[in-house]
């Protein structure tokens, strides 16, 4: 049953006012059970769904399809309530993590399947399917069966199948995870171009911050089945409400309790912030890695937050280096510096250093 949801459009008659004439389908969903949230999205909205393992991301997608007993969703697309329809008649396309291609069909046959189920003539369906395979860089593999495809190739065929079916709701479960870096960039560009003109809503589970920022209009942060945050990517990056999503977006995130001048950290340590919260407030301190200064000697001058530490790891990130510093006084801290600065400091793993953060560079977010 679960492959059909990714392939077939509805066979029920479109009702008046359901968006069939305009090609625009807003979404409204109330999800209960393991997931507890209400989703509203205008046509053309892409929502990145993020959160730690077990947060309920895949359960949410399966609830919208009617495929899980763990959660139930009442679902309206346009003005059409599809809650009682079986998955293959909801006009919802799903790309699960394993792609779920039909093993007995070729890549072309898989991609054309949804169009054929929608009533499209065979020749036209195959032409449209070939176009989508070409767009995603796997057109030359049209006559191969899934067993003859790599994981990344199969993932692109599954994505082509979903997009070709012209759904009203598109559900993508880590659609680019199996792709190498250059292929991922190409497919991301194709997907972004398609979503720009898409008249429905797309929910995309991802652990990739680049996908969340470049493809999504909103980021929905889930934790234990509930919505912790639902906001624009820039807002989530500036004020993440969970340590997990802050770290996914490359920020340092320390939890603690607000004091008169900053934060008393959980476990050990204190942090001074320029804009403290009311005392006693549970909060996260967010520190961008670019705000962390690394020194070989204890710095003098204005920094209010200064700690000794030891370099645990140095990794390249584009043209910069990320330096992980462990300190006995505060949680681990990641700083971002240039290779030239690292060379001048003589940094290597296990080097003793000092790190500092200005109070004005600390953002406190209540949780």
Any overview of this molecule?
The chain is α+β, with helices and mostly antiparallel strands and 367 residues long. The protein folds into 2 domains: 27-238, Rossmann fold (3-Layer(aba) Sandwich); 250-366, OB fold (Dihydrolipoamide Acetyltransferase, E2P) (Beta Barrel). It has 10 helices and 20 strands. It has helices at residues 4-7, 57-65, 107-117, 122-135, 151-164, 181-196, 209-215, 233-238, 243-248, 339-345; strands spanning 27-33, 37-41, 46-50, 71-77, 80-81, 92-95, 169-173, 201-205, 218-223, 226-231, 252-259, 262-265, 270-272, 282-287, 293-295, 305-317, 320-326, 333-337, 352-357, 362-366. The chain has a 6-stranded mixed beta sheet with strand order 6-7-8-3-9-10, with helices on both faces. It has a 5-stranded antiparallel beta sheet with strand order 13-12-11-14-20. Helix 3 runs parallel beside helix 5 (151-164) and helix 4 crosses helix 5 (151-164). It is elongated, with a radius of gyration of 24 Å. The protein starts with a helix and ends with a strand.
């Amino acid at each position: 049953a679960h492959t059909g949801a990714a392939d077939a459009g509805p066979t029920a008659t479109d009702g008046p006012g359901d968006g069939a004439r305009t090609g625009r389908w807003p979404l409204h969903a109330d999800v209960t059970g393991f997931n507890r949230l209400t989703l509203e999205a205008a046509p053309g909205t892409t929502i990145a769904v993020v959160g730690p393992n077990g947060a309920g991301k895949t359960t949410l997608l399966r609830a919208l399809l009617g495929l899980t007993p763990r959660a139930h969703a009442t679902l309206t697309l346009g003005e059409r309530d599809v809650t009682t329809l079986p998955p293959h008649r909801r006009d919802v396309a799903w790309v699960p993590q394993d792609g779920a291609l039909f093993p007995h069909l070729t890549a072309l046959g898989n991609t054309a399947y949804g169009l054929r189920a929608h009533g499209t003539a065979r020749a036209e369906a195959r032409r449209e399917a070939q176009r989508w395979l070409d767009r995603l860089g796997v057109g030359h593999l049209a006559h191969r069966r899934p067993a003859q495809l790599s994981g990344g190739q199969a993932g692109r065929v599954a994505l082509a199948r979903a997009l070709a079916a012209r759904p009203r709701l598109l559900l993508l479960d880590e659609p680019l995870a199996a792709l190498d870096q250059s292929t991922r960039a190409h497919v991301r560009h194709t997907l972004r171009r398609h979503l720009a003109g898409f008249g429905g809503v797309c929910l995309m589970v991802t652990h990739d911050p680049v996908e969340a920022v470049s493809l999504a209009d909103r980021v929905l942060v889930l934790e234990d089945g509930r919505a912790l945050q639902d906001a624009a990517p820039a807002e989530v990056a500036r004020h993440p409400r969970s340590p997990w999503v802050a770290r996914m977006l490359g920020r340092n995130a320390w939890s603690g309790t607000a004091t008169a001048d900053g934060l008393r950290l959980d476990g050990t340590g204190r942090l001074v912030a320029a804009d403290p919260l009311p005392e006693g407030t549970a909060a996260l301190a967010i520190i961008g890695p670019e705000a962390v200064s690394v020194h070989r000697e204890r710095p003098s001058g204005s920094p209010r937050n200064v700690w000794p530490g030891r370099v645990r790891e140095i990794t390249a990130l584009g043209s910069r280096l990320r330096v992980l510093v462990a300190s006995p006084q505060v949680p681990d801290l990641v700083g971002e510096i240039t290779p030239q600065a690292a060379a001048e400091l003589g940094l290597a793993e296990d080097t003793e250093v000092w790190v500092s953060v200005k109070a004005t560079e600390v953002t406190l977010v209540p949780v």
